Amino acid sequence: MPETDRRKGRTIRSVKIAFNVIDLLQERGRIGVTEIADELGHSKSTVHSHLRTLEERKILVRERDGYRLSLRFLDMATHVREQVGNYDVIREQVDALAEETGEIVQFGIEEHGQVSYLYKAAGEYAVETRSRVGTQAPMYSTSLGKTILAYLPAERTEEIVQSMSFEPVTANTVTSESELYENLEAIRERGFGIDDEENIEGLRCVSAPVRNGEDILGAVSITGPSSRFTEDKLHGELSDHVQRAANVIELNTKFS
């Protein structure tokens, strides 16, 4: 049974509506009651009640031309970020590696069976990617996700894999459980994961796990165009870079 089905229980409709409003405002920016009601398929009175409640809780700000998210979300985001152990060390290592390599460097963790991006830095030669801090991506099509999966407890890995739909993102995307488990075994053997144009055509990525004993805290990755990220570089200097950065974060975690 998929993870979402196993964990699905009684839900509260009004809470769902409230979060749908928040999601819409994040996506669209400042908009009014009528537009929100039309977009979400609820009556204006229902939407207005939720907006007033969210405004009262200082989650939203009402302005002349509509509602927008309040700065309370910045406070929440800072609090969430500080709950991650050694965030300052993660930021320093990601920034340093981006400067050294000139590429995109990211740190990700597992949340809700996906890889969530905690921090991202871009070097001088970095190409643009769709990932941004706080967003999620499938674990089966990213090096960060596969690397984290490889070192999660076996039961948790199986639980996540069972929930996957394996939708192909590119021609190289992993599309089956058996292929994914082969990938995970290879990652454990060599100590790093590779995304060979599996999430975005033309981009390759290499990542290393960050562990604390038997626990997997997350993974750090370098991403760049396949023209620069050759097989030799992926398995050589680039994998060395991420493994060294991961080791520094691990040491600081152990002795903090």
UniProtKB/TrEMBL annotation:
Xref: InterPro entries: ArsR-like_HTH, GAF-like_dom_sf, HTH_MetabolicPath_Reg, Tscrpt_reg_IclR_C, Tscrpt_reg_IclR_N, WH-like_DNA-bd_sf, WH_DNA-bd_sf
GO molecular function list: DNA binding; DNA-binding transcription factor activity
SMART domains per UniProt: HTH_ICLR
Residue stretches making up the HTH iclR-type domain: 12-71
Keywords, comma-separated and alphabetical: DNA-binding, Transcription, Transcription regulation
Origin species: Halopelagius inordinatus
Domain annotation IclR-ED: ranges: 72-255
Designated name of the protein: Transcriptional regulator, IclR family
Gene Ontology biological process terms, A to Z: negative regulation of DNA-templated transcription
PROSITE patterns: HTH_ICLR, ICLR_ED
